[in-house]
Amino acid sequence: MICCNWQTMLNVKKGRMKKGNLKSYLPVNLFLIFMYVLIFFGFIEIASEANAADLTQVRILPKVEVNDDNILLGKVAAIECDEPVLAQKLKDIVVARSPLPGKSRTLGKQTFKLRLIQKGIDLSLLSLHIPEKVVVTRNYVTVSAERIKTLVFDYIEQNVLRNHANGSIKDIQVTERLLLPNGRITFKVIPPRNRDLFGKVPFSVHFNVNDKFYKRVWAIAKVELIADVVFTKKPLGRHKPITENDIVLRKMDLAKLPSDVITDPDLVLGKRTKRAIDSNTVMRANLVEYPPLVKRGDVVVILAESGGLRITALGQVKKKGRLGESIPVMNYDSKKILYARVLDASTVKVDF
What we know:
Layout: H1 6-14, H2 19-54, E1 56-60, E2 63-66, E3 70-72, H3 73-76, E4 77-80, H4 84-91, E5 94-97, E6 104-108, H5 109-118, E7 126-129, E8 133-138, E9 141-143, H6 145-159, E10 167-174, E11 178-180, E12 185-190, E13 199-209, E14 212-232, E15 247-253, E16 272-273, E17 288-289, E18 299-306, E19 309-317, E20 326-331, E21 337-342, E22 347-350
Parallel strand pairs: 1-7, 2-8, 18-22
Antiparallel strand pairs: 1-4, 3-5, 6-8, 9-11, 10-14, 12-13, 13-14, 14-15, 16-17, 18-19, 19-20, 20-21, 21-22
């Protein structure tokens, strides 16, 4: 135990101690004061350590890799908390948006403190350990340009060339690789609408991550399709009925021809030309037509059917018509004009 002569100290203060006594007591008094200071601050340090031990510890890591769209506090910090509810609340705090896959972003101390305050967290209850800079990097998966080409190649083989033995893929161009977030990756190859899938064809490839659309990449495919094409063998005049002697088949790349070229001879035989056609001309749908089966004044049978009921009557054609065309016909009995579809040279049908 350390004792102190308070009267002696008082006498020193009042200047009552003799000079010799002062020299003898001065070192002792300085020693006592020094000990009191050590004891006082020692108690403060012990109290501070005890208080810090009761606080929730939040230690932010200086470098972190994340997988999600948001940077959660629980993903970038080690959290020690005795209260499960508070611990989960801290872990779920969104600190910031994550960078793009393969990219990084740097966060400062104030960002973390601000997010804690915004979520109603009392900072005095936390023991925060935050570096001056926290670098967050987004994990990623690389889809190479070659992989995208393979996806498009497989789609064309399965959906375009399956029924075309003479078809082939000459080239596929993809201009970029793709960086995707980690997750369950799916894709879909989408062809263009309302056009033939040969020649230079743009395909879009959609990538989803965890069933959510993420990005689209374009691929340009050059598809060659060799097929028989109908050509005129000789010049044909206007309204000339087309026979086998008028046409010839030649193998051509459909990618180099108009989209409405005729590849099946049966689609021209029995029809007639709409206008005069030169020899060696590619036959197209807009160059031929069915000849009229009926003309104005012809007498035809008007047929009407509904369910099990069938009615026929005679009528007179008021306008020439081809197979399948709807033309006006006068019913001889009622004298009414009906519109009926041409079935053959002697029959028209009223559609209900």
